[in-house]
């Protein structure tokens, strides 16, 4: 599994390098697709590779508010997509509208998985041997409505199309106000899972039942693991394995720049409000489904 995550890191680093001249305003269209163009390009990519990729659009809504999320499924042999013996990975991007770089990373990863793009210095046979064992579901843009607000000029909008932070709308510690709570930025909604986008993600996670879920954000250099809602990590061997893996990735690919540990324990280390959240920095957030991600 380390090789797969290494592959993700390679993809992100090479993309980050290409985007290093990005600025906050205006959105540089030489660097960032519009949401419509990006999703259209991803669907076209899927249609060029029906042997490996499938795409579905999940829609729901309530109280006059509608949301839809595109989900791409990758399996090197499409007929084995439902093979439950394979290792299942869920990768989600664009939960916060302003974090444009993350959705570009999703496109880059799908381009590599489809073998339209390649990573330098990666042994293809070894990578394919790993990919043979996997089913990967990619949510390239979780918060399409929020992203459209950003594209309409609200450049630092992180919430969904009706002002709810999708990263505060899960059920663990819902509505809990931390010391630095910002009622505007962190509006948790009217209740847990009140938002269509969160409902879709929850259902996707429950049905796909991933072994690993990586929730990709931008804004700080961090590799977070559970818990996000408290200042500790779980006990036991799986937790140690996760920490070991993240540490290895940090050492090998991030020059030890990343914070590693519980999201909840690390939040005081860097004030997100003082960081350029639209920058290219990639944060990885592996977390358990029942845990509420923090950022
Ligand atoms: Zn975020």
TrEMBL record:
Gene Ontology molecular function: metallocarboxypeptidase activity; zinc ion binding
InterPro entries assigned to the protein according to its UniProt record, in alphabetical order: At5g42320_M14_CPD, Peptidase_M14
Keywords: Signal
Keyword Signal: yes
An annotated GO cellular component: extracellular space
Biological-process GO terms, alphabetical: proteolysis
Domain Peptidase M14 per the UniProt entry, residue ranges: 31-295
Keyword Signal carried by entry: yes
Domain of life: Eukaryota
Signal peptide: 1-18
Cofactors, names only: Zn(2+)
SMART domains: Zn_pept
Gene3D superfamilies listed in its UniProt record: Zn peptidases
PANTHER family: OS02G0119300 PROTEIN, PROTEASE FAMILY M14 CARBOXYPEPTIDASE A,B
Family as reported in the entry's similarity comment: Belongs to the peptidase M14 family.
Protein name (database record): Peptidase M14 domain-containing protein
């Amino acid at each position: 599994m380390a090789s797969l995550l290494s592959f993700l890191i390679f993809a992100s680093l090479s993309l980050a390098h290409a985007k290093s001249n990005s600025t906050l305003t205006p959105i540089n269209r030489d660097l960032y697709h519009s949401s419509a163009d990006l999703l259209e390009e991803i669907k076209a990519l899927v249609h060029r590779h029906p042997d490996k990729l499938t795409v579905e659009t999940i829609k729901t809504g309530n109280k006059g508010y509608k949301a839809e999320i595109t989900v791409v499924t990758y399996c090197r042999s499409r007929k084995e997509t439902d093979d439950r013996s394979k290792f299942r990975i869920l990768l989600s991007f664009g939960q916060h509208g302003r974090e444009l770089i993350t959705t570009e990373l999703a496109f880059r990863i799908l381009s590599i998985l489809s073998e339209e793009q390649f990573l330098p210095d990666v042994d293809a046979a070894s990578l394919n041997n790993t990919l043979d064992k996997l089913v990967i579901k990619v949510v390239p843009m979780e918060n399409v409505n929020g992203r459209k607000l950003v594209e309409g000029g609200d450049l630092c909008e992180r919430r969904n199309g009706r002002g709810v932070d999708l990263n505060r709308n899960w059920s663990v510690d819902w509505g809990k106000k931390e010391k630095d709570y910002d009622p505007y930025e962190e509006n948790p909604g009217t209740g847990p899972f009140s938002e269509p986008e969160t409902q879709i993600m929850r259902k996707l996670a429950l049905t796909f039942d991933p072994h690993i879920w990586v929730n990709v954000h931008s804004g700080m250099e961090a590799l977070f693991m559970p818990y996000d809602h408290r200042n500790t990590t779980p006990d036991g061997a799986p937790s140690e394995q996760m920490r070991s893996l993240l540490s290895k990735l940090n050492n090998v690919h991030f020059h030890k720049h990343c914070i590693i540990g519980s999201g909840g324990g690390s939040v005081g280390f860097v004030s997100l409000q003082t960081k350029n959240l639209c920058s290219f920095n990639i944060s990885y957030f592996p977390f358990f489904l029942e845990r509420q991600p923090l950022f």
